[in-house]
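Minutes, project check-in

Agenda point 3 was the complex the collaborators sent over. CS summarized: two entities, 760 residues total, and the question is how they sit relative to each other. Sequences were read into the notes so everyone works from the same version.
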Amino acid sequence: MNNAVKEHAAPTRLIKNRELILAPLNAQSLSDWQQALLDTGHVGSGVSLLGEVDLFDSGLLEHLAALSLIVIEFTVFTDGRGFSLAAQLRQYGFTGELRATGAILVDQLHYLQRCGFDAFELGQEQDLNVALEALAAFSKAYQPGW
Amino acid sequence: MYIYNELDKQLVSERVQQFRGQTQRFLSGELSEEAFLPLRLQNGLYVQRHAPMLRVAVPYGMLNSAQLRMLAQVSRDYDKGYCHITTRQNIQFNWPPLDAIPDLLEDLAVAEMHSIQTSGNCIRNVTSDPFAGVAPDEVVDPRPYCELVRQWSTLHPEFAFLPRKFKIAISGSEQDRASIQFHDIGLQLVERDGSLSDVKENSERGFKVFVGGGLGRTPIVASELRDFLPECDLLSYLCAIVRVYNQTGRRDNKYKARIKILVRAMGIEAFAEKVEAEWQRIKGRYPVLEADEIARAQAFFSAPAYEVFDDETVAQQLQIQTADLLPPSQRVFKQWLARNTRAHKVAGYRSVTLSLKPTGVPAGDLTDAQLLAVADLADRYSFGEVRTTQQQNIVLGDVASGDLLELWLAATQQGFTTANIATLTDITCCPGGDFCALANAKSIPVADAIQRRFDDMDYVYDLGDLSLKISGCMNACAHHNISHIGILGVDKKGQEFYQVMLGGSAGDVSKAAVGKVVGPAFSAADIPAALETILELYVAERSEGERFVDLVNRIGMARFKRVLYPETKSPETKSPEKKSPETKSPEKKSPEKKNQEAKSSDNPSEPKLKAVSV
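CS then shared the predicted structure for the full assembly.
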């Protein structure tokens, strides 16, 4: 379970439900979260993990209801594993904030949203207006996202 | 034929607008080359040797006459007046300028066409049997299911950044004309008796599911993943397979990223278990394909207004019509009837294949005028619809036998009646080094040289059913490794050479096989002579009615090696055995050294073919 992600600094530009969030929640790395759970039995409120993490090995499944934030970090934008992980989390009933961070392109936001993400941490170089437009690229879909 | 509803129209239109914005941002420098790459690929746009190449989706090969006319217009307005039919039933334009692509896509959308997911690491256009719905041996028409899978996979948010491309093919006949066992997922429609009763009405429809087949540098016959999947569960099961692949397929090496490598590494049992576990988890929440939804899809592919004919009367009429022709025309027409038309499930009808393989034209190329002519032929003789084939030809599915002569006369004027379907000269050929940036060698000139060498059609007919396919690199776009005779272009120190493979086969689910390299590669100039040698051995050794591929399986590769490389100890001097007087002695023998151990492509765990040390 060595899936540690660097401690999450407060994002400066977070879009959630198509609005800019100024004071976002923080999340613990998965390994810290796992350790704290082991040491104190405390479930905490936010966890951050890499898109390639196997949900069934993470220990998260039993605690989805207690968590209010899960951050999925993409290491490269061409790695689509985080899309499936998000869809799985939503399928298992996670209803809190599901945030995408790391290497994501504005042109991926619409698909990310359809996989269950509702918050997106963008880099300084990414244009917020383009991002909002990209989120609304399609008004309908052929299939369920998750 | 499927007709767009409001949802289809809106999605395609929004996709064009999305891509227009992305293209503008790329051209203005706002979007990097790296970020634009997957976006343009998932809109079918490649950057090739000379210009961008745009691949237009032809869902499961079906086109109507309005679409053909739009393709003609697009080829005139944005290209050099021609297009190319690919081995996955799609259409390619070789010369459209990048900044005009959004306009081009907008024009295509008018005729209900798009280029969504014709490239990139996503679920590609679904392919199928070009004789779907008309073949006499069909169990279930696969097209409604193809359409349902097309919709499910199009703009699927979870599967746009897979480890690698992902191809699905669906067939509904015992005879597999869609090469389903060489796809990432192959679906064979089957019917079985209901589990509670043996009453026929209770028969259940579903799929035999194959997974992990593929061509390319590691050709593998797919494994059976599931004996029977009820049709209502199709989409949730597909979702489970693709999700397992998305999460566990390799991403560290693009040559090992296809699902075939994953399935082989895990073993089919372990892979099946993982899919089953995921499927059980999602099944309950995933919408099932309801009977009325399937019925709605089927309604688009209901039988056209066939006339009622009596087979015997029709045959007599055709005989009388033929008798009126002058003897030379009579002979050619009869050959065309025998090779380019095939049985239809409805009495008095035939399916006609328009050959796009006359000598002197690159396989699968069509001019704008020819596209218009095909549209007219379709309107006049085949209910306004055609199908593209894996072999890069065009099929008119529903032609009344009484119209065959008239059709033949009209199609001959367009150069569509070369009577060579499924023969040696019906060569499947990728664009190769003339166009493609990936190619190691040219393929079009090799096909041309073969067609010119084998111009005696009586000899070609005598050879019987034969498939010959030429790929310009090991990506195998021409499917050379599942062809009876396959030719693969390789690059050796900057020079083009060609490996010959024998014994590949798709088409019969129980006998699907990957061809084996016969020995060291030949130069382009030596290929026709090598083929002659191979075919002479076939003619000499075949028993009554034995097909080429069956003979290869019976007598084995060693016999062919012996005639092709008689002096096995000095590969430098070996050359195709020359028997026939018309075989020109090639100036320069070009086989490679160090290749005698070769043959490692027999072992699919070898990622590279080693018959030529490239």
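Noted in discussion: Confidence is low (pLDDT under 50) at residues 1-11 of chain A.
Follow-up: revisit at the next meeting once the mutant set is ready.
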